[in-house]
Amino acid sequence: MGVEAGAQAARSRALAVLRIRSRALAVALLPAAVAVVLLAGGSTGHLVGSGWHTARWAVTCVAVLVLLAAGGIALVVARSRPAVSPTVAIAEESAPDLYRMVRDLADRLDVPAPSAIALTPDCDSWLEDRTHPAHGPPPREHRDELTSGLRGPHRRASAAPVLVIGSPFLWWMRVGELRAVLAPVVAGTGPSAHPDIAAARRFIRGLDAAVAVASAPNRGPLSRAVLSGVGKVARMLLSSCREHASEMERGVAAAAAERAQAVDYGLRIVAQEQVGLAYAGWDRLLTRVALPAWRMGRWPSRLDAGVVAALTELSRRDRLAEGFTSRLGERPACDLLEEPGAVDEAASLLAARLFHGGPAEAGPDWAPVGWQEYPEEVVDRKWRTDAARLHRVLDTLGVRRPNTRTDGPTLSRVLDHLSTRDDSASTADERTTSGDAASAAVERTAPEDPASAVAERTAPGDAASAVVERTSPGDSASAANRRTTPGNATPAADEQTAPETPAPAAGERRAPEQPTPAPDPTRAPTPQAPPAPALQDEAAPAPAHEDEAAPEDETGARFEADAEAGFDADADADADADADAEAGLDADADTEDPADTERSAALAAGLTAELAREESAAPPSPAAPAPDTALWDDGALPLFPLQPPRSPRELLADHVTAMVCCAAMDTAGATPGLDWLDGPTLLVNGERAADLTPRVLSLIEEGDPAPLKAWLIESGIRPEKPVRLV
After folding, report:
1. Per residue in 238-265, pLDDT tens?
2. Which residues pair with 680 in a beta bridge?
3. Closest alpha carbon to 169 in 327, 267, 308
4. Cβ-based neighbours of 372, under 8 Å, separated by 6 or more
5. How many other CB atoms are found less than 10 A from the CB of residue 534?
6. What are residue 688's DSSP bridge partners?
7. Which residues fall within 8 angstroms of residue 643, CB to CB, at 6 or more apart?
8. E-only strand ranges, 328-404
9. Which residues on adjacent β-strands are paired with residue 674?
10. Contact call for residues 230 and 72 (beta carbons, < 8 A)
11. What are the DSSP calls for 40-76, one per residue?
12. Does the reported pTM lie above 0.90?
């Protein structure tokens, strides 16, 4: 096979990078060359006189300083250790079939075989040069048509790079699919073996490592001053090489793709679909399933096997993914490993370190957990821990227990504290201020007809009516006016329902809203509702009263778009948006300013402070390096944090939901469960409680407990009963 055009372009760009290195060396040697000329002229009697004598000594001093500075910079560049990706090393003894497949692929491509194979906890594959002396033994020589006849005594022999494979690929892909995906990656060893390309890459990696050394903190004043100069020179050289280096890498990639076209081309097109699907399942598994366990001090030991379960569950729910399960009967790529369970465990621990910052080894506070024990060991413990923290903050705020005869914590305490519409007050004024304005108005206007009052008070308690009432969360007065019978409504009741809004302003908003049928469009989902990037609502079973849920074709289309985009990393914000869309909230109003009540804001602030104290009091994680992490700096873990810190509103919603789940488990026989696509879930009568989140948001944002209380009654949960906490 002839030399590809991309390889020639890459070599020309590599020579441009090397010319920049030569120019930098020439600039460093120029003062020394001038000093040599002046010294030689003085010794031969040509350049004599006081002026030449002064210039000779001045130039000589400058040359010595420049040579010392250049030598120091070159020493830092040469001794700086280039960055190496954190991986799990796979020895040939532990995966002979995998090494055999890669070597056979290299022979078919007529390129050098990779020197080693490693796994990374990510959905990507690449070649990595580890020929630096700090990375291992001296490099060995490889030859192909690019390097033949070009290597001389001054050329440095380049070792084949290490092949890094994404661990989810081994478990989800079949053997043929993995070979097709790795073909263009392995083909890159040919251009990488060219001495000019290898030298240019070493120069760029050395400059990058020097910049990292110069930017390292915790150094003395003298070292910091010296290294700052080294960093400036290295950055200047990197800036000069940036365009040539990027074009060189594009040429290498083009040459590898051109060479790999003749190997499994048709199968590679199909395998690329599995790459996107594996990425989507891996991202979903990390953010929804692994992250709650990591926060509890547990790390799932079979993450890669969980990818298969998650994507299989997706194929069961989504008709567009049904064809993906038909290929599961073929041989999986993980069979190429002698001990796939041990490799999966090592990759899972490394993923916990990279994405969460966990310790390098298992311990009492950092123990592995299997998928069978996940509901009891993680979900149940997480909910009870959050519920206990919620009641500790309530104690700090001085919130009394609703039943003094009950010693244990109850859900009623949380509901009563967060509710600003309490219909059980002792007087009519208290009912109209903090309870249901419609019921209070009915009781005042028609006290002689209790049956009629009871009939009119039943409507606001209905869950569907409560959802409709939340159409305008920012206008409590209008919501109360819609719930109240027109003939019985009084201005005083309407004004007292929204204490934060002045009476004239509430009246001005109320007048145009009475004839407008605003709540009607929210009774059924509309096509204009924003789709959820994380698939939480459409993937879950729809509630019984919502028969007009998203059709299967829309669900599949949304998943296909999400798989191409790689999913949004902010899964918590997506879940909140899904819940708001399901409940019929105004997206713009909720985004600008959530309608949190004063009590919920204070409780959320207390939870944030309590959680910060717990994290600061926790002992620091041990910094012992893992077996294959001695080559990379683990002082700034996590390297790839999955999510930003949760907001106070999200913390409060999580803690209230945890308290509801604890009450459901202790009083209604509910059980914790694991959903492969959505993480921890509550199972009530064997079915997933998918409609709990919008009801909790109604409580904490508007102080309206009616939707949640209706759900509790429907599920048979008794909020007045004490629950068990940790």
Report:
1. 999 999 999 999 999 999 998 888 888 7
2. 674
3. 308
4. none
5. 25
6. 683
7. 287, 291, 569, 570, 571, 572
8. 367-369
9. 680
10. yes
11. HHHHHTSS-SHHHHHHHHHHHHHHHHHHHHHHHHHHH
12. no
